[in-house]
Amino acid sequence: MAQISRFLKNPLTALTQINDDESLCKNLLGSGLKQFCYLYGKGESMAYAIIEASGTQLRVEPGRFYDVNRLAVDEEASITIDKVLLVNDGDDTSIGQPLVDGASVSGTVVRHLRGKKVIVYKMKPKKKTRKKRGHRQELTRLMIDSINIGGKTITAEDASAAASEEE
Q1: Which of 2, 91, 115, 124 is such that its CA lies 20 to 30 A from the CA of 12?
Q2: CA-angle at 149, arms to 148 and 154, nearest 5°
Q3: In angstroms, rounded to a whole number, what is the distance separating the alpha carbons of residues 134 and 122?
Q4: What angle, rounded to 10 degrees, do the helices at 2-9 and 22-30 form?
Q5: Alpha-carbon torsion 66, 67, 68, 74, what sign?
Q6: Residues 133, 138, 143, 149: is their CA dihedral positive or negative?
């Protein structure tokens, strides 16, 4: 636990120790700080891509669903996103400048929904002026089926099989 608290106090100096120290990485994995070990090459490998969809950049993995701003696509329809900024397939990483050539992410629209309500309250002191308004963002739930790069397709089954082989 002392190693983890040292990491949280000064993360910049501890990053090099994560790369070198297996026991520190295992402690981090046990404490729920998996993201640090994934970023620096330790832990189980997983395939992911960073895409741009509806004005936001997302880190997506095959077999998971994500909520993005409303897309003009019917429910249960397939969608292909060509704006892929980065693809990581275990040991292989492709970084685009700005986009990765020949890479795409295919998914299925699960449903359209509305996000949580956000209350916007404006008040001018001493003027008796108050405005209370709410906003709910229109969202699309998108299930990622596969990541395609250069003719190679990465699906959820492939990613889980690769992770189980390493263990």
Answers
A1: 91
A2: 45
A3: 11
A4: 90
A5: positive
A6: negative
Q: For 71-111, what is each residue's pLDDT tens digit? A: 999 999 999 999 999 999 877 888 989 899 999 999 999 99
pTM over 0.70? The answer is no
Residue 137: how many other CB atoms lie within 10 Å: 13
Domain shared by 38 and 88, yes or no: no
Examine the domain organization and report whether 99 and 116 are in the same domain: yes
Residue with tokens 């501890």: 14
The owner of tokens 């992911």 is 48
Q: How many CB atoms lie within 10 A of CB 165?
A: 10
Say yes or no: 121 and 51 in one domain: yes
Residue 149 structure tokens: 């790069």
